[in-house]
Amino acid sequence: xxxxxxxxxxxxxxxxxxxxxxxxxxxxxxxxxxxxxxxxxxxxxxxxxxxxxxxxxxxxxxxxxxxxxxxxxxxxxxxxxxxxxxxxxxxxxxxxxxxxxxxxxxxxxxxxxxxxxxxxxxxxxxxxxxxxxxxxxxxxxxxxxxxxxxxxxxxxxxxxxxxxxxxxxxxxxxxxxxxxxxxxxxxxxxxxxxxxxxxxxxxxxxxxxxxxx
Length: 213
Fold this sequence. Notes:
Blueprint: H1 9-22, H2 41-53, H3 56-63, H4 75-83, H5 88-97, H6 121-143, H7 148-160, H8 165-174, H9 189-201, H10 203-212
């Protein structure tokens, strides 16, 4: 059994490193903290700066009480409200004013978005995914004794010709770059129903076996 004794400095550092590796980023104090009573300081600072920079007439308009509409819990209404937004700023305002979600009753902050809206994250993710998966497949082929030009031609044929995984998903991938696109706008429920039907009939496993053969 380990002896109950104070930790030396090296042991304390190792414990802190273990906490950091586990994802701990907040220290717990001796007294409980009421998170509901706290306000995000960044938002308050931004509001102060914007108010100071705004004209006096605009400040008078902001001081007037704004009536918050009573929202229903109909998902269709939420989608129609979101569709009226012309920018991320407008969408954030709509989400912040929406009362049709029960999570808002105990929420303390609005988690909406972070980062540059113009960032080319889709292109970066596509490059990294394609490169990593391609090199990984080449390595698996090498372990099976398939190397060189034969491995590359076979992999490219599988990706783009037959069955053409990359060719089949290219149109859906390109849709991400269309103005106003969001994955939620794509209704894929018919694919779920088809998969469930195939699973109930036991046909999906047979298809996979035939494809493998």
